[in-house]
Design goal:
This protein is 85% helix and 0% strand. It has 142 residues and is mainly alpha-helical.
Length: 142
């Protein structure tokens, strides 16, 4: 069982890297949309969709592996500290923000220029919440 849990933790950390990396890459694409021609914009939109799908898949893997790890390694949440609950609150905020950012990005691609500011705000929330999740995880599980 220990090997399985270790593999789950590995997958959890790998998903964290892919999710945060994709989110960061998406935040760097935004400023270029207004500076390039239509052909390049279409290529940026394709790249943005790929990063968005990667980030959403990583989020799903994080939820699944996180819940399985807590259940298998700790027997549930009963004995976990306040740091764990702070982490979970930030995970929920992060998940909601990713959803809002994805929705704003889809609207932006569809022509709603005002949605870019909502996507940018979601990106900033993601950064702060993501770092908070990591900090709380260190104190909860180290």
């Amino acid at each position: 069982m220990d090997i399985f849990v270790n593999i789950l933790v590995f997958l959890h950390l790998a998903a964290l890297v892919f999710g945060m990396g994709s989110g960061f890459a998406l935040s760097r694409l935004g400023p270029y949309y207004g500076q390039v021609g239509e052909d390049a914009k279409l290529k940026l939109f394709v790249l943005g969709r790929r990063y968005s799908k990667t980030a959403n898949m990583a989020l799903a893997v994080l939820w699944i592996t996180g819940l399985l790890t807590v259940w298998l390694k700790y027997g549930g949440v009963a004995g976990l500290s306040g740091w764990f609950w702070a982490k979970m609150i930030l995970v929920v905020i992060l998940s909601a923000s990713i959803g809002m950012g994805s929705a704003a990005y889809r609207k932006f691609v569809g022509g709603d220029v005002g949605a870019s500011s909502r996507a940018a705000m979601a990106g900033r929330i993601n950064l702060v919440a993501g770092l908070g999740v990591i900090l709380c995880a260190v104190f909860a599980f180290a």
